[in-house]
Design a protein that fits this description.
The complex is a heterodimer of chains A (187) and B (97). Chain A is mostly helical and 187 residues long. Chain A contains 6 helices and no strands. The N and C termini of chain A lie far apart (38 Å). The chains are: A mainly alpha (187), B mainly alpha (97).
Chain lengths: 187, 97
């Protein structure tokens, strides 16, 4: 049962991650390059996969690591080609995979319980805030690993935070549309 | 937590976001019930459905519509059934942020 559930999580969350990655690099980055051709960084200013990472970390906890690892590896294969089998890429994959669950785990065990459950409702600003911290940490570590230029640190942070916010907005509008399509009694 | 409850938690989180951004809309009947209940709860901590049904805003609302909308308001967290009183008594909550 646990293996079946994990397999289901891997399929769902990795598919979501790859879909967000495809939208980011297939649509948003080309649009960004058209709109801001002089922008010095190659980083996406709207990196939707970070939203998937944060929401997976919030909902699944440490299970987000196996759930997203295949998709994060595939995305790095696309970005780095054969260099994906290098120490730098392995480090980047580890940072991208582990940062958000670690931040949520530390926050839950030290500041406030962010775990989703039926009895206590966690507000979206708390998840957004933890996601922002995760974005800052992962962006810093990734750029340190890649020895990036200073502007990349800022670009990664902006891209990750806006990616999280806009992914939540997209999901919110989707659920809203779905609710209006199938209204409950009294609506 | 199973997969369905994870989805429910995600929906709950995003419903909170919708409310914070002022995008959640109540139906006209829900809005009238909420206004009436808010007004009545200024004098008493809880509101009885019988009193609520007699409110001026409820005059054109049929009983089935009223109870459907009331159930929906409870589902959305705007009102809840009083834990200490018997059935038909509700507590009004501020919209969740």
């Amino acid at each position: 049962m646990a293996v079946k559930s994990l397999r289901f999580e891997i399929v769902v969350w990795s598919s979501a991650y790859l879909a967000a990655f495809a939208v980011t690099f297939g649509i948003l980055v080309p649009l960004q390059n058209l709109a801001f051709p002089e922008f010095p960084s190659q980083a996406s200013l709207l990196f939707l996969p970070q939203g998937v990472r944060v929401l997976a970390a919030w909902l699944l906890g440490w299970r987000a690591v196996p759930a997203l690892l295949p998709a994060i590896f595939i995305s790095y294969c696309y970005l780095a080609g054969w260099d994906v089998f290098s120490l730098t890429c392995y480090t980047c994959i580890a940072i991208a995979t582990f940062t958000a669950p670690t931040v949520f785990w530390i926050t839950t065990n030290t500041i406030c319980d962010l775990r989703p459950n039926a009895s206590a409702s966690v507000g979206w600003p708390c998840v957004m805030l933890a996601g922002t911290v995760a974005s800052a940490v992962s962006g810093f570590l990734l750029n340190l690993t890649l020895n990036s230029a200073p502007q990349d640190y800022i670009a990664y942070f902006i891209g990750d935070v806006s990616g999280l916010f806009f992914l939540m907005m997209i999901l919110m509008l989707f659920f809203r549309w779905q609710r209006k399509r199938h209204p409950q009694p009294g609506e | 937590m199973n997969d369905i409850s994870k989805l429910a938690e995600l929906r709950k989180l995003l419903l909170g976001m919708e409310r914070s951004l002022g995008l959640e809309d109540l139906s006209s009947v829900e809005r009238d019930i909420y206004y009436a209940a808010s007004e009545l709860s200024k004098t008493t901590p809880s509101v009885r459905t019988t009193v609520l049904l007699n409110h001026a805003l409820m005059q054109d609302v049929s009983r089935p519509t009223f109870f459907r909308a009331l159930k929906s308001l409870v589902g959305k967290g705007y009102m809840s059934q009083s834990a200490t009183s018997r059935r038909g008594v509700y507590i009004v909550h501020a919209p969740q942020k």
